[in-house]
Design a protein that fits this description.
The complex is a heterodimer of chains A (about 120) and B (about 120).
Chain A: E1 3-5, E2 10-14, E3 19-21, E4 24-26, E5 32-39, E6 46-52, E7 60-61, E8 64-69, E9 74-79, E10 88-96, E11 108-109, E12 113-118
Parallel strand pairs in A: 2-12
Antiparallel strand pairs in A: 1-4, 3-9, 5-6, 5-10, 7-8, 8-9, 10-11, 10-12
Chain B: E1 4-7, E2 10-13, E3 19-25, E4 31-38, E5 42-51, E6 54-57, E7 65-67, E8 73-78, E9 87-94, E10 106-107, E11 111-115
Parallel strand pairs in B: 2-11
Antiparallel strand pairs in B: 1-3, 3-8, 4-5, 4-9, 5-6, 7-8, 9-10, 9-11
Classes of the chains: A mainly beta (about 120), B mainly beta (about 120).
């Protein structure tokens, strides 16, 4: 079974600064996907960024980037130029690579990191 | 498109009462999921469905039943609610593709359920 660990229950960052959220995972799979989801106070789950395990290049989406270390099973999220709207719960999630003809498999989530951006 | 919708948004039950949560999606997705979110626990999979008429157990299925009679709907039932089922429930859906590529899961807005 896969497990996802987020060791930072809460973090805070000053507006315009950079913050890194940590995530480690455990799996025996060789091919999989990793995700960061954002959950603002509205409760809506929003996909921030995705990484495919067989791709060495780290994913980036505007101010969001990841540091994917496959051997260490580490997947951290860096938020640059933090904005007040980044205040939210952030969840790291794992998904086994879908089998052919089988499509998606369910997500396994970490417990989350509550990020507060301070003006 | 409305995307993924959940009914109701809030509900308070007494111990032993029953209820059904409805998830509907208008994106013609084959896969649908029910998760629960508890403080400090993240989201955990309750049940999921890979197509109309099929369901499977997830990580925490006890005390819940599901049905997928129509492709666009996925129902989550609590036959005899317990305080331990107080949680926020999320439904999600996604495409299934024969190539086995990843398809994004789209989440509903959640249902906050309190069992007294």
């Amino acid at each position: 079974a896969q497990t996802v660990t987020q060791s930072q229950p809460e973090m805070s960052v000053q507006e315009a600064e950079t913050v890194t959220l940590s995530c480690t995972y455990d799996t025996s799979e060789s091919n999989y996907y990793l995700f960061w989801y954002k959950q603002p106070p509205s409760r809506q789950m929003i996909l921030v960024i995705r990484q495919e395990a067989y791709k060495q290049q780290n994913a980036t989406e505007n101010r969001f980037s990841v540091n994917f270390q496959k051997a260490a099973k580490s997947f951290s999220l860096k938020i640059s130029d933090s904005q007040l709207g980044d205040t939210a719960m952030y969840f790291c999630a794992f998904m086994k690579h879908p089998l052919i003809n089988s499509g998606n498999t369910p997500l396994v989530f970490g417990k989350g990191t509550r990020l507060s951006v301070i003006a | 498109n409305a995307g993924v919708t959940q009914t109701p948004k809030f509900r308070v039950l007494k111990t032993g009462q029953s209820m059904t949560l409805l998830c509907a999606q208008d994106m013609n997705h084959e896969y649908m999921y029910w998760y629960r979110q508890d403080p400090g626990m993240g989201l955990r999979l309750i049940h999921y469905s890979v197509g109309e008429g099929t369901t499977a157990k997830g990580e925490v299925p006890d005390g819940y039943n599901v049905s997928r009679l129509k492709k666009q709907n996925f129902l989550l039932g609590l036959e005899s609610a317990a305080p331990s089922q107080t949680s926020v429930y999320f439904c999600a859906s996604s495409y299934s593709r024969s190539r086995g590529d990843y398809n994004e899961q789209f989440f509903g807005p959640g249902t906050r359920l309190t069992v007294l």
